[in-house]
Amino acid sequence: MSWLHYLTEANIYLLVFYLCYRLLLAGNTHYTLSRVYLILSCIISFIIPLMQVSVLRPNIQEVQTFTKVSYVLPAANLNIPVQNQGFEFSVKNILPYIYITGTLIAAIVFAVRLWCLLKITKAGKACKYGNYQRIDLPDQKTAFSFFNYLYIGTGLKQPDTIIAHELVHIRQKHTLDVLFLEILKIVNWFSPVVYLVQQSLKTLHEYIADEQTAALERDALSYSSFLLNNAYGLAGAPVTHSFFNNNLLKRRIIMLNQKRSGKLARLKYLAAVPLSAGMLCTSTLLFSKNYGVIELGPIKQKKMAVQQIDSGKYALKLTELKSGLTVISDDIELKDSAANKSKLYSVKTFSGEPQEVNLKGNWYRIEKVLRDSTKVLSEQKQHPLPPPPPPIFPVKTPFTAFTQYIINKVKYPAEAVKNNQNANVLLSFDVNSAGRVSNARVAGKPGSAFNDVLANTVNQFNGKINTHAGTYKMNVHYFILGHEGVSFPPPFVTKSTNYIGEIQIVGMTKAQDSMMNMPPPPPPPIEPRKKVKGIPPPPPIEKLSDVNNADQDKSLKALYTHLGRTVRYPAIAFESDKQGRVILTFNVEDKKISNIRIIRGLMPIMDGEVVRAMNDFDKPLNLKNGKYSMPVLFAITNDSKEPDVKKEYPATGYTLTKGETTTILSEVVIMGYKSKS
């Protein structure tokens, strides 16, 4: 509901301008200046919320070091049903409908008034006099004007003075002011200050017309007498300037005979300058916005002081037991993005015993570990790093496909990779009632390679998001493997109800990219299983020949190539020199893979990486229907020699469930390359 926040903020500023007018300027006889003040105050009030003074706001993209890790739990892990939510009655949900209803009613009322004025124009007798057109209204005692049309009743006495008064409205184009306020009333029908501004502006129009008409008379007193003698006429349409307005008669006569304000009184209007500056600073400092902003002045490159990690020998380690994802820091904050709850753990106050936290079925272990065993990021720069495991998207469930689309489409800017540039940007976008995404905005310096590519990609998303219409925010973190610069959005962003989470865009250098595209070593043959006395023989296993040399089949080659290029060596396993085989089984039905199962694993994060890669294989597998098993070897070597896989990693047997039969496929080797230290 950022548009409602915008209207509310704008009306607050308009109220401040109007209070200044009532306190300082309402008694002045510089009516034209007062008219300009009211019109400009309406315009400026709706511009200020769209602007901010850059030097007053810290640039959140310049944070260099962060020692407090926020691990935001994805809403999907909390088993919250979000796909088929019904309409929930609340102020937040019903408010947009109330506003739209009020706007439609105000627009209809305005249209009816114009239609009534059109009927009066057609019913009257039209005569053109110079630059205006006179409409005579038979047997009526009224007079008013609208643009260049002057409406006057034939039953009025002394019509010349009334015509002179209305011609001032026509020459000064007062009708434009009235229509401007009428449109403003339609948009801000809920705000009483707009009605007060319109009333004051119409009063100023009458003061201006009275002042210029009285100059044509002998003196102001005679014109005042004329007003009193003609105070019985009928008022015109609300969207016109009517000569007969009994509510203003007393004030018009008082101001007409009031002493004229001096030239120094014009200085009072300069109060609008510091008033605008103060409201602009207030808008920058107090209001957090996700609607478009205009930067004023150069962006202040404010760098936060680098926080030194505790010099003690311990740090905190957070492990998600399901995926094996690990985070190490001095302070760790667990946030439940759905329930908007959080808990902070600090290395200085944490007890020695490990703790396991269960958040609606998802388990996390927090423990204190030796700092030397954490392998600080700066030490990892000594060798090319393999890419990290695919991130667990801490985003709300309806946005999973949307964020996956961004990760697949957005490419890390080549120039940024070359200059080792990281970025942490805040993305805002709108979702309409049909679930379509539009109007992507990225907070930060316009023209940035990070911002432009991201915004264009989001606007090209064709999918549908099953969520309520509104404006949503997410954090997009760009980082290059092996380089520091991790940063997180400020708390006022993550605690917002329309914040959906964070995703990561990974950049790789040419060396890292070439390492990832190296073809896997040829799979070694599986050694025959040795018989051990006392152990029952394993279930029968089909030979490769039974599947018509399936190893040589193109589809199997495609599967092996896919796994070799897609399976990533998890960073935590790579740094801890974790090696070995993952044995998986799967079914083939109608050339499709299903029922993938790990029967012997290494680490949850390594097992999950293999399953993820298998699930991503979308080509047909030309094997006969049945059950298959396949070993995936994770091995680490240095850059001096290739390992003898057969010798260093001899094949070992494995047992299936009793009664199961399977066909063994060739082994896929995932090699990690580590430089000599």
* Structural classification: alpha/beta
Tell me what portion of residues adopts beta-strand conformation.
Answer: 15-25%
Number of helices: 18
Radius of gyration: 37 Å
Largest sheet: 6 strands, mixed
The mean pLDDT is 75
Q: Helix share of residues?
A: 25-40%
Number of strands: 24
How does the overall form come out from the CA principal axes?
A: elongated
| Poorly predicted runs of 5 or more residues | 59-86, 300-311, 373-393, 484-492, 516-524, 529-552
Distance between the termini: 55 Å
Structure characterization notes:
The relative contact order is 0.10. Strands 19, 20, 21, 22, 23 and 24 form a six-stranded mixed beta sheet that branches. Strands 3-4-6-5-7 form a five-stranded mixed beta sheet, sandwiched between helices. By secondary structure, it is of the alpha/beta class. The protein is elongated and about 120 Å long. Residues 59-86, 300-311, 373-393, 484-492, 516-524 and 529-552 have low confidence and may be disordered. It is built from 18 helices and 24 strands.
